[in-house]
Design a protein that fits this description.
Layout lengths: L17 H15 L4 H15 L8 H10 L3 E3 L7 E3 L1 H19 L12 E13 L11 H12 L12 E6 L4 E8 L12 H18 L4 E7 L3 E4 L16 H13 L5 E8 L5 E4 L2 E4 L6 H16 L4 E5 L4 H14 L2 E4 L5 H13 L4
Parallel strand pairs: 5-6, 5-8, 8-11, 11-12
Antiparallel strand pairs: 1-2, 3-4, 6-7, 9-10
């Protein structure tokens, strides 16, 4: 008799230790609490109470002691703060963010990271070609060259000539300077939806990718609310939204100022936002308007989109909102810059951003 036989689900055995299982969850919660160790441990304790994460043999007190003993948390220099994440924890959070993003990318269409140029590049490919005068000697494919010589001359009278030599094909990996802009206006946590944590996670992962795999690239991260300012990679887990409006103009001005000082020709801006521009600065005062699309604010924003296009700085906007009015604005902004726009859900923000980064790295000006 054909058909399906159903039985109770039995999860696979988890080979990780109790500490390792709790650590991954703790790191995720730590991002949501903006690095507040005490609050993160309170959340974890509540989850343990509800779902039985620990066992009689290994409880929360054991986990906290292991965090201290293994150097994941430390006493703050400020006595009033208690325990804070260590440098090791910050590094582990970046690595975890990168692993999470790449597991997402496995389900998405892979993006290319190479240019269309072959020859004297800086990234070796498995493909080979006959040696030509001027090819670099360190690109010689030894196995293929020896095989050619053996086929031509045999074993007994083995000789190796220039005609036998093959070299690896190479491609240019264009050095890229990227500025990542993160909206930290109050709307990033409105309506019961946490949008700032996915943005932080993407920034952490992108920082880890560039610093470990593309060290010639540069990444600058800025946040923008009423104003815009740079943040260090080590500060990313601690980002919080504030009672800010959205001064997109200030963010773009700072991003372009940073990129003007970069010497390589390949430059780009990534902007993660969920709202329309609602603020600009006039002299020392702020002009704010949260209702609709303010004509003066939009005019200043569009002017910068055009200015960036003229100096060949594309802006890719990752819009984590779907309001029709805002979609129309982002479309107009994107056309003015000749850039790109993604209307990304929070679950797939990382996959969209990473794919675009890798595709853009293939450009060569």
């Amino acid at each position: 008799m054909s058909g399906w036989l159903f039985s109770r689900y039995q999860p696979d055995d988890d080979a990780r230790s109790p500490f390792e299982r709790l650590l991954k969850l703790f790191q995720e919660i730590l991002l949501h609490t903006s690095g507040d160790v005490s609050e993160a441990l309170s959340w974890l304790t509540e989850l343990d109470r509800q779902y039985g994460l620990t066992t009689p043999e290994y409880g929360m007190a054991d986990f906290i002691q292991d965090l201290i003993d293994q150097g994941y948390i430390r006493s703050s220099d400020d006595p009033g703060r208690g325990m804070v994440p260590s440098a090791r924890m910050e590094m582990e959070i970046r690595r975890k963010a990168l692993d999470d993003i790449f597991s997402d990318l496995k389900q998405a269409r892979p993006g290319g990271h190479q240019t269309r140029f072959s020859g004297k590049g800086d990234e070796r490919l498995p493909e080979t070609k006959p040696y030509q005068y001027g090819d670099r000697m360190d690109q010689i494919a030894a196995a293929e060259s020896l095989r050619n010589a053996q086929i031509r001359s045999g074993i007994d009278d083995f000789t190796l000539t220039q005609d036998d030599l093959e070299v690896h094909e190479t491609v240019y990996q264009a050095q890229t300077s990227t500025v990542l802009m993160i909206d930290i206006s109050h709307s990033m946590i409105l309506y019961g939806e946490d949008r700032i944590t996915p943005a932080k996670k993407v920034a952490l992962a992108l920082a880890e990718l560039i610093t470990t795999r593309y060290p010639k690239d540069t990444l600058d991260i800025i946040v923008f609310g009423n104003d815009a300012w740079r943040v260090a990679i080590k500060d990313l887990p601690y980002l919080q939204v504030g009672p800010y409006h959205t001064n997109t103009v200030a963010g773009l001005e700072l991003a372009m100022d940073i990129l003007r000082k970069r010497r390589n020709p390949n430059k780009q801006i990534f902007m993660i936002t969920d709202g329309k521009p609602t603020c600009i600065k006039k002299g020392k005062k702020y002009y704010k308007n949260s209702f609709g699309l303010d004509r003066e604010i939009i005019r200043r924003t569009m002017h910068l989109a055009t200015a960036a296009r003229k100096v060949q700085i594309p802006i890719t906007t990752f819009m984590i909102a779907s309001d029709p009015m805002l979609v129309r604005f982002v479309d107009q902004f994107t056309r003015a810059n000749a850039g790109k726009a993604f209307y990304a859900g929070l679950d797939h923000l990382g996959a969209f951003l990473f794919r675009d980064y890798k595709e853009n790295k293939g450009r060569r000006s």
